[in-house]
Amino acid sequence: MNDTLKILIGIVIPLAGTVGGAAMVFLLKGEMKPQIQKILLGFASGVMIAASVWSLLIPAIEMTKERGGIAWLPATVGFLLGMGFLLLLDSVIPHLHVHSEKPEGKKTKLGKNMMLILAVTLHNIPEGMAVGVVFAGAKASGASISTASAFALSLGIAIQNIP
After folding, report:
1. Using CA atoms in the order 123, 128, 134, 138, what is the torsion angle rounded to 10 degrees?
2. Rounded to whole angstroms, how far apart are CA atoms 94 and 57?
3. Could you tell me the pTM of the whole model?
4. Side-chain-facing half-sphere of 111: CA atoms under 13 Å
């Protein structure tokens, strides 16, 4: 299988998870019990933390160590810049959280549905960036990121998107 097809499949896997999660709306038509909702959110959070650490942060630290740099510095700077970027997007993009009547971000006349779509998009931006970065790292010559670990991250993101 050529590299382009592998990357395309790796990108489609999280998309399938998002579609699968959205399809659950049709299966769970009634109100979800709060306890089940907490379990699903906890599961999704755990998967994303594991994916972030093992597929992004640890490989970044190892790659820097191999090149003789300060091992923790690029991963820390990237992590902090990512947080800042998401905080900026969160304050600029008008969006609405589930079970909330008051929108966040800039004031807008957008409807409730459009703001919910923007909230989901805001959630998916870092996931898409993570998948793109890890597949770019796997494709780069001399990188210590394997295609298998790139697919593992992609699958982890897909799994956490379902709940």
Report:
1. 160
2. 30
3. 0.74
4. 2
CB-CB contact of 137 with 10 (8 Å) = no
If you write DSSP's letter for every residue of 35-71 in order, what string do you get?
Answer: HHHHHHHHHHHHHHHHHHIIIIIHHHHHHHHHTTS-T
The answer to whether 21 and 163 are in contact (CB under 8 A) is yes
Q: How far apart are CA 105 and CA 108, in angstroms?
A: 9
How high is the pLDDT of residue 30?
72
The DSSP result for 77-116, as a single string, is HHHHHHHHHHHHHHHHS-B--TT-SS-BSS-----HHHHH
pLDDT digits (tens, 9 = 90+) for 9-52: 998 999 899 888 888 877 777 777 888 888 988 998 898 888 88
End-to-end CA separation in angstroms for the chain: 31
Calpha distance 92→95 (Å, rounded)? 9
Residue with tokens 């382009």: 4
Encoded tokens for 104: 């966040």
Task: Look up residue 3 and give its two tokens.
Answer: 């590299």
Q: Which stretches does DSSP call E strand in the chain? A: none
Residue 37: other Cβ atoms inside 10 A: 14
